[in-house]
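By convention, each integer encodes one residue's backbone shape. The lines below illustrate.
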Amino acid sequence: MTLTVQFYTMIAMVAMGVWLGVAMDTYSRFLHPRKNKSIWLYGNDIVFWLLQGLLIFYVLFEVNEGALRFYVFLALLCGYAAYRALFQQLYRNSLERIIIVVIGLFHFVRSLFIHLIYKPIRFILKLLLSLCMMIVSVGVTIFWFIIKLFWVPFKWILLLLWKLIPRSVRSLLIKTAGLADKTKNYIYHWISKLRK
């Protein structure tokens, strides 16, 4: 391994140490609550460290074909220590500001969506529903008006025909209707008794 490759390896591992500090702070901010330890949390920890190990090994493989030396671990430790000493507070403050900006932007976009898209569409749908109900109501009113308009002359014709029928036939029809009504009531009475 040449000196140039060793130098690049040292620089890459210091950078990966800084990245490891950044990744740990970001992970602990979003996915690592202080309370409620659970299997899900331990699974997340295992996946996080596996991904970090794979990423570090990938960078090492790209720089020096994956040759592990003692100074690689020292460079990682130096990069992590440099991050903790120099950049951690700055990064955490920046991360909090970014989170506040993203949350504010999300609320702004949500409010914009509600006021410019959701509420107008809901208003239009309510208007269309009211219009449909009004059309149906007017249609039903017109329909009943037409029925009544035709029913009155038809009722008069029926009354006129009823008066033209001889009295004996009328009384027979009334008795037949009464008998049919009594029969119907009698059948309903027995059906209700049988159901009990």
